[in-house]
Amino acid sequence: MDIPSNLLHNCSINSERQNITVLSVMSPIGVALMVLSFVVLWLIGKLAICVWWRPLMLERELRRQGINGPPPLLLLGNYVEIIRLENIQRSIDMDAFRHDIFQRMLPFYTKWCKTYGRRFVFWEACEPRIAVTEPELIREVFSSKLALAFGKSSLHQRCCENLLGKGVAMANGESWAHQRRTIAPAFHADKLKGLAGIMMKCTEQTILRWETSLQQAEAVGKDEVEVEICHDFGVLTADIIACTEFGSSYDKGKRIFDLLTSLQELTLTFAHFVWLPGSRFLPTSWNRETWRLKREMEKLLKEIIEERRDLLKMGKIESYGDDLLGLMLTESEGGSALGDSNHDISGIHSKRDKGHAAIRRPCFTTQQIMDECKTFFFAGHETTAGLLTWCILLLAAYPEWQEKARQEVLEVVGDIRHHENGGRKQFTELADALPKMRTLGMIINETLRLYPPAIVITKYALEDVRIGGDLKVPRGASVWVPVLAMHMDSELWGTDAHLFRPERFQHGVARACKHPLAFMPFAHGPRNCVGQAFAVMEAKIALSIILPRYSFSISPAYRHAPITLLTLKPKHGAQVLLQRIRRQKEAPSPS
Ligand code: HEM
Protein backbone atom coordinates (compact mmCIF):
# COMPACT_ATOMS: atom_id res chain seq x y z
CA MET A 1 0.00 0.00 0.00
CA ASP A 2 1.36 3.45 -0.90
CA ILE A 3 1.73 5.90 1.99
CA PRO A 4 1.14 9.52 0.94
CA SER A 5 4.43 11.40 1.04
CA ASN A 6 3.03 14.40 2.93
CA LEU A 7 1.86 12.04 5.72
CA LEU A 8 5.36 10.63 6.04
CA HIS A 9 6.78 14.12 6.09
CA ASN A 10 4.34 15.17 8.85
CA CYS A 11 5.21 12.05 10.86
CA SER A 12 8.94 12.70 10.73
CA ILE A 13 8.43 16.33 11.69
CA ASN A 14 6.36 15.16 14.69
CA SER A 15 9.00 12.65 15.90
CA GLU A 16 11.80 15.21 15.54
CA ARG A 17 9.71 17.64 17.58
CA GLN A 18 9.21 14.94 20.27
CA ASN A 19 12.96 14.26 20.43
CA ILE A 20 13.72 17.93 20.70
CA THR A 21 11.07 18.22 23.43
CA VAL A 22 12.57 15.25 25.41
CA LEU A 23 16.07 16.70 25.23
CA SER A 24 14.97 20.22 26.01
CA VAL A 25 13.00 18.90 28.99
CA MET A 26 16.24 17.24 30.38
CA SER A 27 18.41 19.68 32.26
CA PRO A 28 22.23 19.49 31.91
CA ILE A 29 22.24 17.79 35.33
CA GLY A 30 19.84 15.18 34.00
CA VAL A 31 22.10 14.47 31.01
CA ALA A 32 25.12 14.24 33.29
CA LEU A 33 23.26 11.83 35.59
CA MET A 34 22.28 9.68 32.63
CA VAL A 35 25.89 9.53 31.40
CA LEU A 36 27.11 8.81 34.92
CA SER A 37 24.67 5.94 35.39
CA PHE A 38 25.84 4.42 32.08
CA VAL A 39 29.46 4.69 33.26
CA VAL A 40 28.61 3.17 36.66
CA LEU A 41 26.69 0.31 35.02
CA TRP A 42 29.59 -0.31 32.65
CA LEU A 43 32.06 -0.35 35.55
CA ILE A 44 29.88 -2.72 37.58
CA GLY A 45 29.63 -5.02 34.55
CA LYS A 46 33.37 -4.97 34.02
CA LEU A 47 34.04 -5.60 37.69
CA ALA A 48 31.57 -8.49 37.75
CA ILE A 49 33.34 -10.06 34.76
CA CYS A 50 36.77 -9.68 36.41
CA VAL A 51 35.96 -10.75 39.93
CA TRP A 52 33.18 -13.28 39.36
CA TRP A 53 32.50 -14.45 35.82
CA ARG A 54 36.07 -14.99 34.58
CA PRO A 55 37.27 -16.73 37.79
CA LEU A 56 34.17 -18.94 37.67
CA MET A 57 34.95 -20.00 34.11
CA LEU A 58 38.60 -20.66 34.97
CA GLU A 59 37.64 -22.72 38.00
CA ARG A 60 35.27 -24.84 35.89
CA GLU A 61 37.92 -25.38 33.24
CA LEU A 62 40.48 -26.53 35.82
CA ARG A 63 38.01 -28.76 37.64
CA ARG A 64 37.10 -30.36 34.29
CA GLN A 65 40.77 -31.41 34.09
CA GLY A 66 40.65 -32.89 37.58
CA ILE A 67 42.62 -30.04 39.19
CA ASN A 68 41.00 -29.22 42.52
CA GLY A 69 41.89 -27.04 45.45
CA PRO A 70 40.57 -25.12 48.45
CA PRO A 71 37.35 -23.21 47.66
CA PRO A 72 38.13 -19.53 46.93
CA LEU A 73 36.24 -16.56 48.39
CA LEU A 74 34.88 -13.92 46.05
CA LEU A 75 37.51 -11.20 45.44
CA LEU A 76 39.93 -12.62 48.07
CA GLY A 77 40.55 -16.09 46.71
CA ASN A 78 42.45 -18.08 49.36
CA TYR A 79 44.36 -15.07 50.71
CA VAL A 80 42.78 -15.23 54.17
CA GLU A 81 43.86 -18.84 54.74
CA ILE A 82 47.31 -18.26 53.22
CA ILE A 83 47.97 -15.28 55.49
CA ARG A 84 46.55 -17.07 58.53
CA LEU A 85 48.85 -20.06 58.05
CA GLU A 86 51.86 -17.87 57.28
CA ASN A 87 51.27 -15.74 60.37
CA ILE A 88 51.20 -18.81 62.61
CA GLN A 89 54.57 -19.90 61.25
CA ARG A 90 56.09 -16.43 61.35
CA SER A 91 55.15 -15.87 64.97
CA ILE A 92 57.50 -18.64 66.18
CA ASP A 93 61.27 -18.99 65.84
CA MET A 94 62.89 -22.29 64.93
CA ASP A 95 64.44 -24.22 67.82
CA ALA A 96 67.88 -24.53 66.14
CA PHE A 97 69.74 -23.50 62.99
CA ARG A 98 67.98 -26.24 60.99
CA HIS A 99 67.46 -25.98 57.24
CA ASP A 100 64.18 -27.86 56.83
CA ILE A 101 62.41 -24.52 56.49
CA PHE A 102 60.04 -25.59 53.74
CA GLN A 103 57.00 -26.30 55.97
CA ARG A 104 57.59 -22.96 57.71
CA MET A 105 57.90 -20.94 54.51
CA LEU A 106 55.09 -22.53 52.47
CA PRO A 107 52.64 -23.88 55.09
CA PHE A 108 49.62 -23.57 52.80
CA TYR A 109 51.38 -25.61 50.11
CA THR A 110 52.14 -28.48 52.49
CA LYS A 111 48.57 -28.43 53.79
CA TRP A 112 46.83 -28.39 50.38
CA CYS A 113 49.27 -30.86 48.87
CA LYS A 114 48.12 -33.42 51.43
CA THR A 115 44.44 -32.82 50.64
CA TYR A 116 44.46 -32.31 46.87
CA GLY A 117 47.67 -33.98 45.66
CA ARG A 118 50.85 -32.35 44.31
CA ARG A 119 49.08 -30.71 41.38
CA PHE A 120 46.32 -28.49 42.77
CA VAL A 121 44.92 -25.00 42.34
CA PHE A 122 44.69 -22.14 44.83
CA TRP A 123 43.68 -18.52 44.36
CA GLU A 124 45.52 -15.27 45.00
CA ALA A 125 42.64 -12.78 44.83
CA CYS A 126 40.94 -13.50 41.48
CA GLU A 127 43.92 -15.28 39.92
CA PRO A 128 44.27 -19.07 40.01
CA ARG A 129 47.72 -20.60 40.59
CA ILE A 130 48.31 -24.19 39.55
CA ALA A 131 50.99 -25.76 41.76
CA VAL A 132 53.33 -27.84 39.61
CA THR A 133 56.42 -29.76 40.76
CA GLU A 134 57.09 -32.25 37.91
CA PRO A 135 60.55 -31.23 36.57
CA GLU A 136 59.65 -32.14 32.98
CA LEU A 137 56.57 -29.90 33.05
CA ILE A 138 58.64 -27.10 34.54
CA ARG A 139 61.24 -27.54 31.80
CA GLU A 140 58.48 -26.94 29.25
CA VAL A 141 57.08 -23.90 31.05
CA PHE A 142 60.56 -22.31 31.18
CA SER A 143 61.41 -23.22 27.57
CA SER A 144 62.05 -20.77 24.71
CA LYS A 145 59.04 -22.22 22.90
CA LEU A 146 56.71 -20.78 25.55
CA ALA A 147 58.71 -17.66 26.49
CA LEU A 148 56.14 -15.32 24.97
CA ALA A 149 53.12 -17.36 26.05
CA PHE A 150 53.91 -16.94 29.76
CA GLY A 151 54.56 -13.66 31.56
CA LYS A 152 53.56 -11.59 34.57
CA SER A 153 49.94 -11.31 35.71
CA SER A 154 48.18 -7.99 36.15
CA LEU A 155 48.03 -8.57 39.94
CA HIS A 156 51.80 -9.05 39.96
CA GLN A 157 52.30 -5.96 37.80
CA ARG A 158 50.01 -3.86 40.01
CA CYS A 159 51.91 -5.01 43.12
CA CYS A 160 55.24 -3.94 41.66
CA GLU A 161 54.08 -0.94 39.60
CA ASN A 162 55.64 1.70 41.85
CA LEU A 163 58.86 -0.22 42.29
CA LEU A 164 59.62 -1.64 38.86
CA GLY A 165 57.28 0.19 36.49
CA LYS A 166 57.26 -1.56 33.12
CA GLY A 167 60.89 -2.69 33.30
CA VAL A 168 62.06 -6.04 31.93
CA ALA A 169 61.06 -8.02 35.02
CA MET A 170 57.40 -6.98 34.69
CA ALA A 171 57.06 -6.79 30.90
CA ASN A 172 55.25 -9.33 28.75
CA GLY A 173 55.38 -10.59 25.19
CA GLU A 174 57.28 -8.65 22.56
CA SER A 175 57.95 -5.70 24.86
CA TRP A 176 59.75 -8.09 27.24
CA ALA A 177 61.69 -9.74 24.38
CA HIS A 178 62.95 -6.35 23.17
CA GLN A 179 63.98 -5.18 26.62
CA ARG A 180 65.69 -8.46 27.37
CA ARG A 181 67.65 -8.39 24.10
CA THR A 182 68.73 -4.85 24.83
CA ILE A 183 69.97 -5.33 28.36
CA ALA A 184 71.29 -8.91 28.27
CA PRO A 185 74.69 -8.09 26.71
CA ALA A 186 75.43 -5.68 29.57
CA PHE A 187 75.61 -8.77 31.80
CA HIS A 188 77.97 -10.80 29.63
CA ALA A 189 81.24 -12.07 31.08
CA ASP A 190 83.48 -9.57 29.21
CA LYS A 191 81.43 -6.58 30.44
CA LEU A 192 81.23 -7.98 33.97
CA LYS A 193 84.99 -8.28 34.31
CA GLY A 194 85.16 -4.50 34.10
CA LEU A 195 82.96 -4.29 37.21
CA ALA A 196 85.27 -6.37 39.45
CA GLY A 197 87.06 -3.22 40.65
CA ILE A 198 83.82 -1.59 41.83
CA MET A 199 82.83 -4.77 43.65
CA MET A 200 86.20 -4.91 45.40
CA LYS A 201 86.16 -1.26 46.42
CA CYS A 202 82.64 -1.49 47.86
CA THR A 203 83.57 -4.61 49.83
CA GLU A 204 86.55 -2.70 51.25
CA GLN A 205 84.09 -0.08 52.56
CA THR A 206 82.12 -2.76 54.43
CA ILE A 207 85.35 -4.08 55.87
CA LEU A 208 86.35 -0.59 57.01
CA ARG A 209 83.19 -0.41 59.13
CA TRP A 210 83.95 -3.83 60.64
CA GLU A 211 87.54 -2.74 61.30
CA THR A 212 86.31 0.28 63.28
CA SER A 213 84.12 -1.97 65.45
CA LEU A 214 86.95 -4.47 65.91
CA GLN A 215 89.42 -1.77 66.94
CA GLN A 216 86.93 -0.47 69.52
CA ALA A 217 86.50 -4.01 70.88
CA GLU A 218 90.25 -4.60 70.93
CA ALA A 219 90.75 -1.35 72.84
CA VAL A 220 88.78 -2.91 75.73
CA GLY A 221 90.61 -6.21 75.51
CA LYS A 222 88.13 -8.20 73.44
CA ASP A 223 89.19 -10.07 70.32
CA GLU A 224 85.78 -10.44 68.66
CA VAL A 225 82.85 -8.27 67.80
CA GLU A 226 79.23 -8.93 66.91
CA VAL A 227 78.12 -7.71 63.48
CA GLU A 228 74.67 -7.79 61.90
CA ILE A 229 75.51 -8.99 58.42
CA CYS A 230 72.01 -8.85 56.93
CA HIS A 231 72.14 -5.06 57.23
CA ASP A 232 75.81 -4.79 56.24
CA PHE A 233 75.40 -6.89 53.10
CA GLY A 234 72.26 -4.92 52.22
CA VAL A 235 74.38 -1.75 52.24
CA LEU A 236 77.18 -3.47 50.33
CA THR A 237 75.00 -4.78 47.49
CA ALA A 238 73.12 -1.46 47.26
CA ASP A 239 76.48 0.32 46.94
CA ILE A 240 77.65 -2.09 44.26
CA ILE A 241 74.50 -1.78 42.20
CA ALA A 242 74.46 2.03 42.60
CA CYS A 243 78.06 2.25 41.35
CA THR A 244 77.63 -0.22 38.51
CA GLU A 245 74.40 1.42 37.36
CA PHE A 246 75.31 5.06 37.59
CA GLY A 247 79.09 5.15 37.76
CA SER A 248 80.12 8.74 38.30
CA SER A 249 76.58 9.85 39.26
CA TYR A 250 76.85 7.65 42.35
CA ASP A 251 75.77 10.28 44.92
CA LYS A 252 72.47 10.99 43.23
CA GLY A 253 72.14 7.26 42.57
CA LYS A 254 72.45 6.62 46.29
CA ARG A 255 69.68 9.12 47.05
CA ILE A 256 67.47 7.39 44.48
CA PHE A 257 68.06 4.07 46.16
CA ASP A 258 67.16 5.51 49.55
CA LEU A 259 63.87 6.68 48.04
CA LEU A 260 63.33 3.28 46.43
CA THR A 261 63.94 1.58 49.77
CA SER A 262 61.27 3.76 51.42
CA LEU A 263 58.93 2.98 48.51
CA GLN A 264 59.60 -0.71 48.98
CA GLU A 265 58.78 -0.53 52.71
CA LEU A 266 55.51 1.26 51.95
CA THR A 267 54.60 -1.23 49.23
CA LEU A 268 55.29 -4.19 51.51
CA THR A 269 53.21 -2.74 54.33
CA PHE A 270 50.20 -2.23 52.10
CA ALA A 271 50.68 -5.16 49.69
CA HIS A 272 47.71 -7.02 51.14
CA PHE A 273 45.30 -4.39 49.81
CA VAL A 274 46.46 -4.37 46.22
CA TRP A 275 43.80 -6.88 45.15
CA LEU A 276 41.09 -4.29 45.95
CA PRO A 277 40.14 -2.97 42.51
CA GLY A 278 40.97 0.73 42.17
CA SER A 279 42.66 0.91 45.59
CA ARG A 280 45.83 2.40 44.15
CA PHE A 281 43.97 5.44 42.78
CA LEU A 282 42.39 6.50 46.09
CA PRO A 283 44.04 9.55 47.74
CA THR A 284 44.82 7.65 50.97
CA SER A 285 47.80 8.81 53.03
CA TRP A 286 49.73 5.73 51.82
CA ASN A 287 49.02 6.46 48.15
CA ARG A 288 49.89 10.14 48.55
CA GLU A 289 53.23 9.26 50.19
CA THR A 290 53.90 6.70 47.46
CA TRP A 291 53.18 9.24 44.72
CA ARG A 292 55.46 11.79 46.41
CA LEU A 293 58.38 9.38 46.70
CA LYS A 294 57.90 8.23 43.13
CA ARG A 295 57.82 11.82 41.80
CA GLU A 296 61.00 12.75 43.66
CA MET A 297 62.81 9.61 42.55
CA GLU A 298 61.85 9.99 38.89
CA LYS A 299 62.90 13.67 38.97
CA LEU A 300 66.36 12.64 40.17
CA LEU A 301 66.58 9.84 37.62
CA LYS A 302 65.66 12.25 34.82
CA GLU A 303 68.32 14.68 36.04
CA ILE A 304 71.01 11.97 35.90
CA ILE A 305 69.92 10.94 32.42
CA GLU A 306 69.80 14.54 31.11
CA GLU A 307 73.17 15.38 32.71
CA ARG A 308 74.77 12.45 30.91
CA ARG A 309 73.16 13.49 27.61
CA ASP A 310 74.33 17.11 28.05
CA LEU A 311 77.91 16.03 28.83
CA LEU A 312 78.04 14.09 25.59
CA LYS A 313 76.46 16.93 23.59
CA MET A 314 79.01 19.40 25.01
CA GLY A 315 81.82 17.01 24.11
CA LYS A 316 82.92 16.63 27.75
CA ILE A 317 82.69 12.85 27.44
CA GLU A 318 83.36 10.71 24.38
CA SER A 319 80.62 8.17 24.96
CA TYR A 320 77.84 7.49 27.41
CA GLY A 321 80.18 5.12 29.27
CA ASP A 322 79.98 1.47 30.17
CA ASP A 323 78.03 1.56 33.41
CA LEU A 324 74.53 0.10 32.98
CA LEU A 325 73.00 3.55 32.48
CA GLY A 326 75.56 4.41 29.80
CA LEU A 327 74.84 1.20 27.94
CA MET A 328 71.10 1.84 27.96
CA LEU A 329 71.53 5.48 26.88
CA THR A 330 73.59 4.41 23.91
CA GLU A 331 70.81 2.03 23.00
CA SER A 332 68.18 4.76 23.46
CA GLU A 333 69.84 6.73 20.67
CA GLY A 334 69.81 3.72 18.38
CA GLY A 335 73.49 2.95 19.00
CA SER A 336 74.85 -0.50 19.58
CA ALA A 337 76.84 -0.27 22.80
CA LEU A 338 75.17 -3.46 23.77
CA GLY A 339 76.36 -5.17 20.63
CA ASP A 340 74.41 -7.76 18.75
CA SER A 341 71.48 -8.05 21.02
CA ASN A 342 70.36 -11.48 20.10
CA HIS A 343 72.53 -13.61 22.39
CA ASP A 344 70.74 -14.94 25.41
CA ILE A 345 67.31 -15.38 24.00
CA SER A 346 68.03 -16.96 20.67
CA GLY A 347 65.12 -19.19 19.87
CA ILE A 348 62.56 -16.54 20.66
CA HIS A 349 61.46 -14.76 17.55
CA SER A 350 58.57 -12.44 17.89
CA LYS A 351 56.33 -11.80 14.90
CA ARG A 352 57.87 -8.38 14.43
CA ASP A 353 61.38 -9.81 14.27
CA LYS A 354 60.84 -11.50 11.02
CA GLY A 355 62.20 -9.32 8.28
CA HIS A 356 61.77 -5.92 9.95
CA ALA A 357 65.24 -4.99 11.12
CA ALA A 358 64.23 -1.38 11.67
CA ILE A 359 61.31 -2.33 13.88
CA ARG A 360 63.34 -5.04 15.58
CA ARG A 361 65.41 -2.50 17.47
CA PRO A 362 63.09 0.24 18.66
CA CYS A 363 64.90 2.64 21.00
CA PHE A 364 64.47 2.91 24.74
CA THR A 365 62.43 5.91 25.93
CA THR A 366 63.54 7.89 29.00
CA GLN A 367 60.68 6.30 30.97
CA GLN A 368 61.89 2.82 29.98
CA ILE A 369 65.44 3.65 31.03
CA MET A 370 64.12 4.84 34.39
CA ASP A 371 62.08 1.66 34.85
CA GLU A 372 65.08 -0.50 33.97
CA CYS A 373 67.25 1.37 36.51
CA LYS A 374 64.68 0.68 39.23
CA THR A 375 64.41 -2.96 38.17
CA PHE A 376 68.17 -3.59 38.44
CA PHE A 377 68.19 -2.10 41.90
CA PHE A 378 65.39 -4.30 43.19
CA ALA A 379 66.23 -7.47 41.31
CA GLY A 380 69.92 -7.22 42.07
CA HIS A 381 70.20 -5.82 45.55
CA GLU A 382 68.24 -7.84 48.13
CA THR A 383 68.73 -11.13 46.32
CA THR A 384 72.54 -10.96 46.46
CA ALA A 385 72.48 -9.52 49.99
CA GLY A 386 70.41 -12.58 50.98
CA LEU A 387 72.84 -14.93 49.31
CA LEU A 388 75.82 -13.41 51.15
CA THR A 389 73.98 -13.35 54.48
CA TRP A 390 72.90 -17.02 54.40
CA CYS A 391 76.28 -18.04 53.05
CA ILE A 392 78.20 -16.46 55.95
CA LEU A 393 75.66 -17.81 58.47
CA LEU A 394 76.15 -21.32 57.06
CA LEU A 395 79.93 -20.96 57.04
CA ALA A 396 79.73 -19.73 60.63
CA ALA A 397 77.77 -22.85 61.54
CA TYR A 398 80.07 -25.23 59.60
CA PRO A 399 83.64 -24.12 60.44
CA GLU A 400 85.19 -26.98 58.44
CA TRP A 401 83.66 -25.55 55.23
CA GLN A 402 84.64 -22.05 56.28
CA GLU A 403 88.25 -23.20 56.54
CA LYS A 404 88.12 -25.09 53.23
CA ALA A 405 86.79 -22.00 51.45
CA ARG A 406 89.43 -19.79 53.10
CA GLN A 407 92.27 -22.11 52.10
CA GLU A 408 91.03 -22.19 48.52
CA VAL A 409 90.89 -18.40 48.30
CA LEU A 410 94.39 -18.12 49.73
CA GLU A 411 95.70 -20.66 47.23
CA VAL A 412 94.01 -19.07 44.22
CA VAL A 413 94.36 -15.31 44.84
CA GLY A 414 96.10 -14.95 48.18
CA ASP A 415 95.15 -12.31 50.70
CA ILE A 416 93.84 -9.58 48.43
CA ARG A 417 94.63 -6.68 50.76
CA HIS A 418 98.31 -7.09 49.83
CA HIS A 419 97.55 -5.99 46.26
CA GLU A 420 95.64 -2.81 46.98
CA ASN A 421 97.79 -0.74 44.65
CA GLY A 422 97.56 -3.29 41.89
CA GLY A 423 95.25 -1.17 39.70
CA ARG A 424 93.03 -2.42 36.90
CA LYS A 425 95.21 -5.44 36.14
CA GLN A 426 94.63 -6.75 39.63
CA PHE A 427 90.83 -6.50 39.18
CA THR A 428 90.86 -8.43 35.93
CA GLU A 429 93.21 -11.00 37.45
CA LEU A 430 90.77 -11.52 40.31
CA ALA A 431 87.82 -11.79 37.89
CA ASP A 432 89.76 -14.37 35.85
CA ALA A 433 90.59 -16.38 38.98
CA LEU A 434 86.99 -16.66 40.18
CA PRO A 435 86.07 -19.79 38.16
CA LYS A 436 89.00 -21.58 39.81
CA MET A 437 87.32 -21.21 43.21
CA ARG A 438 85.34 -24.43 42.93
CA THR A 439 84.73 -24.97 46.64
CA LEU A 440 83.35 -21.47 46.94
CA GLY A 441 81.11 -22.24 43.95
CA MET A 442 79.81 -25.39 45.64
CA ILE A 443 79.13 -23.49 48.88
CA ILE A 444 77.27 -20.76 47.00
CA ASN A 445 75.13 -23.36 45.20
CA GLU A 446 74.31 -25.21 48.41
CA THR A 447 73.37 -21.89 50.04
CA LEU A 448 71.07 -21.07 47.11
CA ARG A 449 69.53 -24.54 47.32
CA LEU A 450 68.70 -24.31 51.04
CA TYR A 451 67.90 -20.58 51.11
CA PRO A 452 66.88 -19.46 47.59
CA PRO A 453 66.07 -15.71 47.66
CA ALA A 454 63.01 -16.36 45.43
CA ILE A 455 61.19 -19.27 47.05
CA VAL A 456 58.51 -19.50 44.35
CA ILE A 457 58.31 -18.56 40.67
CA THR A 458 54.98 -17.81 39.02
CA LYS A 459 54.35 -17.98 35.27
CA TYR A 460 51.12 -16.36 34.08
CA ALA A 461 49.51 -17.75 30.91
CA LEU A 462 48.95 -14.91 28.43
CA GLU A 463 47.16 -17.37 26.14
CA ASP A 464 45.81 -20.93 26.46
CA VAL A 465 48.83 -23.21 26.75
CA ARG A 466 49.04 -27.01 26.69
CA ILE A 467 51.93 -28.57 28.61
CA GLY A 468 53.00 -32.13 29.25
CA GLY A 469 50.31 -33.37 26.85
CA ASP A 470 47.62 -33.53 29.53
CA LEU A 471 47.56 -30.11 31.21
CA LYS A 472 45.83 -27.15 29.61
CA VAL A 473 46.70 -23.91 31.39
CA PRO A 474 43.90 -21.53 30.43
CA ARG A 475 44.66 -17.88 29.69
CA GLY A 476 44.53 -15.98 32.99
CA ALA A 477 45.77 -18.89 35.13
CA SER A 478 49.37 -19.23 36.35
CA VAL A 479 51.77 -22.10 36.78
CA TRP A 480 53.15 -21.80 40.30
CA VAL A 481 56.53 -23.43 40.93
CA PRO A 482 57.50 -23.86 44.62
CA VAL A 483 61.29 -23.56 44.17
CA LEU A 484 61.96 -24.30 47.84
CA ALA A 485 59.87 -27.48 47.70
CA MET A 486 61.83 -28.66 44.65
CA HIS A 487 65.13 -27.91 46.39
CA MET A 488 64.10 -29.92 49.46
CA ASP A 489 62.52 -32.87 47.68
CA SER A 490 64.15 -36.01 49.09
CA GLU A 491 63.12 -38.00 45.99
CA LEU A 492 65.31 -35.68 43.91
CA TRP A 493 68.13 -34.86 46.35
CA GLY A 494 68.22 -37.91 48.62
CA THR A 495 67.36 -38.33 52.29
CA ASP A 496 69.95 -35.71 53.27
CA ALA A 497 68.11 -32.99 51.29
CA HIS A 498 67.63 -30.91 54.46
CA LEU A 499 71.35 -30.93 55.34
CA PHE A 500 74.15 -28.52 54.32
CA ARG A 501 76.32 -30.71 52.08
CA PRO A 502 78.12 -28.57 49.48
CA GLU A 503 79.93 -31.67 48.18
CA ARG A 504 76.74 -32.71 46.37
CA PHE A 505 77.70 -30.07 43.77
CA GLN A 506 81.25 -31.37 43.27
CA HIS A 507 80.46 -32.84 39.84
CA GLY A 508 78.50 -29.79 38.69
CA VAL A 509 74.91 -28.63 39.04
CA ALA A 510 73.45 -31.06 36.51
CA ARG A 511 74.74 -34.08 38.45
CA ALA A 512 73.93 -32.82 41.94
CA CYS A 513 70.50 -34.46 41.94
CA LYS A 514 68.25 -36.74 39.90
CA HIS A 515 66.93 -34.06 37.52
CA PRO A 516 69.20 -31.38 36.04
CA LEU A 517 66.48 -28.72 36.30
CA ALA A 518 65.50 -29.37 39.92
CA PHE A 519 67.99 -26.70 41.05
CA MET A 520 66.51 -23.37 40.02
CA PRO A 521 67.49 -20.41 42.23
CA PHE A 522 67.84 -18.28 39.09
CA ALA A 523 64.99 -19.98 37.16
CA HIS A 524 65.76 -21.49 33.75
CA GLY A 525 65.32 -20.74 30.08
CA PRO A 526 65.21 -17.42 28.27
CA ARG A 527 63.42 -15.67 31.12
CA ASN A 528 65.91 -16.76 33.77
CA CYS A 529 67.81 -14.26 35.91
CA VAL A 530 69.72 -11.93 33.61
CA GLY A 531 71.97 -10.97 36.53
CA GLN A 532 73.01 -14.53 37.49
CA ALA A 533 76.67 -14.16 36.51
CA PHE A 534 76.75 -10.68 38.08
CA ALA A 535 75.39 -12.04 41.38
CA VAL A 536 77.76 -15.01 41.55
CA MET A 537 80.74 -12.81 40.69
CA GLU A 538 79.73 -10.27 43.34
CA ALA A 539 79.33 -12.99 45.99
CA LYS A 540 82.64 -14.66 45.11
CA ILE A 541 84.54 -11.35 45.16
CA ALA A 542 83.06 -10.30 48.50
CA LEU A 543 83.74 -13.71 50.07
CA SER A 544 87.27 -13.93 48.72
CA ILE A 545 88.10 -10.56 50.27
CA ILE A 546 86.38 -11.24 53.59
CA LEU A 547 87.31 -14.87 54.30
CA PRO A 548 91.13 -14.53 54.47
CA ARG A 549 90.80 -11.65 56.94
CA TYR A 550 88.09 -12.76 59.36
CA SER A 551 86.62 -15.88 60.89
CA PHE A 552 82.96 -16.11 61.81
CA SER A 553 80.86 -17.95 64.36
CA ILE A 554 77.16 -17.64 65.08
CA SER A 555 76.37 -15.18 67.85
CA PRO A 556 74.22 -16.35 70.80
CA ALA A 557 71.95 -13.41 69.85
CA TYR A 558 70.98 -15.04 66.55
CA ARG A 559 67.43 -16.44 66.42
CA HIS A 560 66.72 -18.65 63.41
CA ALA A 561 63.46 -17.45 61.88
CA PRO A 562 63.53 -17.19 58.09
CA ILE A 563 60.68 -15.15 56.55
CA THR A 564 59.90 -13.77 53.11
CA LEU A 565 59.73 -10.02 52.64
CA LEU A 566 60.05 -9.97 48.85
CA THR A 567 63.03 -12.29 49.33
CA LEU A 568 64.00 -14.87 51.95
CA LYS A 569 65.47 -13.16 55.02
CA PRO A 570 66.33 -13.82 58.66
CA LYS A 571 63.47 -12.22 60.60
CA HIS A 572 65.57 -10.91 63.50
CA GLY A 573 68.70 -10.13 61.49
CA ALA A 574 71.84 -12.24 61.21
CA GLN A 575 74.22 -11.69 64.13
CA VAL A 576 77.63 -13.29 63.80
CA LEU A 577 80.81 -12.95 65.85
CA LEU A 578 83.71 -11.65 63.83
CA GLN A 579 87.31 -12.35 64.71
CA ARG A 580 90.47 -11.13 62.99
CA ILE A 581 92.66 -13.86 61.49
CA ARG A 582 96.30 -13.40 62.38
CA ARG A 583 98.54 -15.41 60.15
CA GLN A 584 101.97 -16.25 61.50
CA LYS A 585 103.87 -15.34 58.36
CA GLU A 586 102.27 -12.19 56.94
CA ALA A 587 103.58 -11.51 53.46
CA PRO A 588 105.16 -8.05 53.16
CA SER A 589 103.04 -5.40 51.48
CA PRO A 590 104.30 -4.42 47.98
CA SER A 591 104.07 -0.77 48.96
C1 HEM B 1 71.52 -14.34 44.27
C2 HEM B 1 71.10 -13.42 43.49
C3 HEM B 1 69.90 -13.52 42.57
C4 HEM B 1 68.91 -14.46 42.52
C5 HEM B 1 68.73 -15.70 43.38
C6 HEM B 1 68.01 -14.08 41.44
C7 HEM B 1 66.89 -14.79 41.06
C8 HEM B 1 66.08 -14.44 40.00
C9 HEM B 1 64.96 -15.21 39.55
C10 HEM B 1 64.46 -16.52 40.20
C11 HEM B 1 64.41 -14.57 38.50
C12 HEM B 1 63.18 -15.00 37.71
C13 HEM B 1 61.98 -14.38 38.36
C14 HEM B 1 60.69 -14.72 37.67
O1 HEM B 1 60.66 -15.17 36.54
O2 HEM B 1 59.66 -14.50 38.32
C15 HEM B 1 65.19 -13.38 38.27
C16 HEM B 1 64.94 -12.46 37.29
C17 HEM B 1 65.68 -11.30 37.12
N1 HEM B 1 66.82 -10.96 37.78
FE1 HEM B 1 67.71 -11.97 39.26
N2 HEM B 1 68.48 -12.91 40.90
C18 HEM B 1 69.64 -12.54 41.54
C19 HEM B 1 70.43 -11.45 41.27
C20 HEM B 1 70.21 -10.54 40.27
C21 HEM B 1 71.08 -9.42 39.95
C22 HEM B 1 72.39 -9.10 40.65
C23 HEM B 1 70.47 -8.72 38.95
C24 HEM B 1 70.90 -7.46 38.24
C25 HEM B 1 71.88 -6.70 38.54
C26 HEM B 1 69.24 -9.41 38.62
C27 HEM B 1 68.35 -9.02 37.66
C28 HEM B 1 67.23 -9.73 37.29
C29 HEM B 1 66.31 -9.28 36.26
C30 HEM B 1 66.40 -7.97 35.47
C31 HEM B 1 65.33 -10.28 36.14
C32 HEM B 1 64.15 -10.29 35.19
C33 HEM B 1 64.57 -11.07 33.94
C34 HEM B 1 63.47 -11.22 32.92
O3 HEM B 1 62.30 -11.19 33.28
O4 HEM B 1 63.81 -11.39 31.74
N3 HEM B 1 69.12 -10.50 39.44
N4 HEM B 1 66.21 -13.34 39.20
UniProtKB/TrEMBL annotation:
Its main location: membrane. Coiled coil: none annotated. InterPro entries: Cyt_P450 (IPR001128), Cyt_P450_E_grp-I (IPR002401), Cyt_P450_sf (IPR036396), Cytochrome_P450_Monooxygen (IPR050665). Keywords: Heme, Iron, Membrane, Metal-binding, Monooxygenase, Oxidoreductase, Transmembrane, Transmembrane helix. Signal peptide: none annotated. One of its GO terms (molecular function) is heme binding. The keyword Iron applies. Heme binds at residue 529. Its cofactor is heme. GO terms for cellular component: membrane. It is found in: Membrane. The chain crosses the membrane at residues 29-53. Belongs to the cytochrome P450 family. This is Cytochrome P450. It comes from Ceratopteris richardii.
